[in-house]
Structures are given as C-alpha cells and as structure tokens.
Design brief:
Elements lengths: L7 E8 L5 H14 L4 H21 L7 E8 L3 E9 L16 H17 L2 E7 L2 E9 L5
Antiparallel strand pairs: 1-2, 2-3, 3-5, 4-5
Amino acid sequence: MKLEDREDLIKLSIPNKPEYVSVVRLTASAIASRIGFNIEEIEDIKVAVAEVCTNIIRNGLKNDNMNFDIEFNIYTDKLCITVTNTGEKICEDVTRNENLNSIEEQEEAKLGLFIIQALMDEVECLENGTNFEIKMTKKIGVGN
C-alpha cells in the first residue's frame, strides 16, 4: 500500500462528543459507496468506524474540547481508514484500562475490538509518541 497508489485522501477532525459519531458513519458510507463497495461491505465499514469512535469517546478522551482525527485513504480496490487519538490508547489491553470501571465495560471494549477485526480485512494498532492509531482496511469484493 504505497501513498503514490492512493487516489484520494479525506480528513476529518471530530469533537469528542457522541453526537458526531453519525457524521463519521455517514462520511464513511458515502465514500465507500462512491468507490464501489456493496451494501453489506458499506454496513461493515460503518459499524467498524462507529465502534472505534464510540470507544474513543467513552473510554479515552475526557475533555469535550479535544478532537480525534479520521483519515480515509481511497484506493482503486480498497478503503483504508485511520483513526488517531492523542493521549489514550485505542487498542490497549482493556483489562488494564483504568477508565473502564466495571467488568461489564471491559467486556464491551473487548467485544468492540473483536467486532472491528471481524468486519474489516485488516486491523492494525500503532503507537507514535502520544498519538495512538487504529488502521482499518476493507478491500472491495473480498469476504472476511
């Protein structure tokens, strides 16, 4: 996956508020539809992106004035989505996350990451200084 192979790049910076998750879902849906994903693949992408955003809002940033970033890298045969959060790991071991107060919350976070991995073709978690990223790739016409 080389940057020179990329056709387009769309970037969003989203406030750390639940009401903006729908903006990300709609954006992901529109992009996926435009590049040729079928309805089932579009729904998979929307659910995965919403799950990442919801986990960041619920378990990560506690400051409503902070934003997290989403990049949609558009290729001819796939969509690569990177969600970047400053300050709180997105894919950390949820059993040791101090922001998760109960066993129930820990189980929800584990389930969320499992769902993301099941819906997308590739999922990668990265740490870069104080930035934490989850990169998700969905290939057109490829089953999970």
